[in-house]
């Protein structure tokens, strides 16, 4: 089982959003897609920003999101 859970990750990612604003991540699909994109960046040689308990790129990406080291931007902010 993935730790932290999808819902925990969504809470962390959306924690900086005001009540009147739309959340950064609306679904599990969105959080998985963002994490997979970051994992591909790590595979391609980008520097890791968090210490993870294992060396799998997806696990590292999850830990980076959970620790707030990586921000998810909307398509408008790219």
Can you give a write-up of this model?
This protein has 78 residues and is an all-alpha fold. Helix content is 45%, strand content 0%. The chain is built from three helices and no strands. The chain has helices spanning 6-13, 28-43, 57-67. Helix 2 (28-43) crosses helix 3 (57-67). The longest helix is centred in the middle third of the chain and has 16 residues, at 28-43. The relative contact order is 0.17. The model has no long low-confidence stretch (mean pLDDT 84).
List keywords for this structure.
45% helix; 78 residues; mainly alpha; 3 helices
Unreliable stretches: none
- What is the overall silhouette? globular
What is the strand content? under 5%
What is the C-alpha radius of gyration, as a whole number of Å?
12 Å
- The string of secondary-structure elements, in order, is HHH
Query: How many strand segments?
Result: 0
Number of helices: 3
Biggest sheet, open or closed, and with what strands and sense? none
Helix content: 40-55%
Give average pLDDT, whole number.
84
- Distance linking N and C termini: 31 Å
Helix/strand-derived category reads mainly alpha
Please render the helix and strand layout as text.
Blueprint: H1 6-13, H2 28-43, H3 57-67
Helix pairs in contact: 1-3, 2-3
């Amino acid at each position: 089982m993935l730790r932290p859970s999808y819902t925990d990750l969504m809470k962390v990612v959306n924690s900086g959003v005001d009540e009147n604003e739309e959340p950064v991540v609306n679904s599990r699909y969105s959080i998985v897609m963002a994490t997979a994109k970051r994992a591909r960046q790590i595979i391609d040689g980008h520097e890791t920003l968090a210490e993870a308990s294992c060396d799998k790129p997806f696990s590292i990406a999850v830990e980076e999101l959970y620790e707030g080291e990586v921000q998810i931007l909307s398509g408008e902010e790219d």
